[in-house]
Amino acid sequence: MRRSTLLAVLVVLLAGACAPTVVTIVEDDRSPAAGDAALAVAGLQPVEVATATLRSAAGCTLRYEVHTPVGSGADLTVVIAHGFLRDLSTMRGWAEHLAGHGLRSAVVSLCRSTPFAGRHAGNAEDLRAVADALLASEPGRTTGSVAYAGFSAGGLSALLAAADDPRAVAYLGLDPVDGGGLAARAEGWDGPALFLFAEPSRCNADGSMVPIVNRLPAATAIAVPHATHCHFEDPYAPLCERLCGRVEPEEAARAIRDAVRSQATAFLLAQAGTRP
Predict the structure, then answer these.
(1) C-alpha–C-alpha distance, residues 27 and 126, integer Å
(2) What is this structure's pTM?
(3) Helices 92-100 and 250-272: crossing angle, nearest 10°?
(4) Which of 35, 97, 203, 275 is the 20 to 30 A CA-CA neighbour of 269?
(5) What dihedral do alpha carbons 271, 255, 88, 3 form, nearest 10°?
(6) What is the pLDDT of residues 106-154, one digit of tens each?
(7) How many helical (H) and strand (E) elements, i.e. helices and strands, does the chain have?
(8) 159: Cα within 13 Å, side-chain hemisphere
């Protein structure tokens, strides 16, 4: 059974015992600011997509997709991690979006996690291995810069990867979740970091990653009003709503997704030096 299918089964089972939260937004001063609207939509740059595999130090096979802007692009590679028991298909939209705005992006299917253990530190090692392969694949870029991004448990692995990689110039946490207090291993890392958080809920372990923010010298945290954990995956998975809740009407939910996408894209473009 594929990981995505297994997760779907778990979600359905859990949803039977936990009624999802429905937030209906009528009028609210806390509506999320989407920032530059142009960054919330697909970029205009053509993109080439390539697939590759890599042998993990654990012996399993890492699959990843590389989305590369055609023509000129920023001298920054973004490595993207998915959530627990998910795969690269659940974050492919992020790679497509960022590449369309000029950032070469790779989305990885992590192979060390099991239904019973996330193995976040091992996943961080695998993310760095993918970065090694990507930078070595282009002449003159073996000492290039890399940014790590991740959703949920993948946000923890991405943070650990950034803290242990001297080439890392940025970290993007998409409603990241800590596991076993492992985020403390990144304490003191002084690279630019942006944490985008949903409302605290069981799906993000009640904001378990929030405490590390004040222990990172160059970190910024933004709480996106009314956002659920589901709003940080791309493509958006409606099945996630059965466990993590949903926002109505659809226009309000779309505004939340746009806010997340534009803030994240602006941050990474700034670190790449292509935008203030």
Answers:
(1) 45
(2) 0.89
(3) 60
(4) 203
(5) 140
(6) 999 999 877 666 699 999 999 999 999 999 876 544 457 999 999 999 9
(7) 7, 10
(8) 34
What are 164's two structure tokens?
Answer: 């242990």
Residue partners of 164: CB distance under 8 A and separation at least 6 = 124, 128
Tokens of 106: 């790779």
Q: Do residues 150 and 136 lie in contact, with contact meaning Cβ atoms separated by under 8 Å?
A: no
179: Cβ–Cβ under 8 A, 6 or more apart, which residues?
118, 120, 153, 156, 208
At 195, the amino acid letter reads F
32 secondary structure, DSSP code? P
Amino acid of residue 49: V
Alpha-carbon gap, residue 170 to 148, rounded angstroms? 7
Taking domain 3-272, whether its CATH number is 3.40.50.1820 is answered by yes
**Tokens coding 155:** 């946000």
Pick from 159, 170, 234, 240: which is nearest to 204 by CA? 240
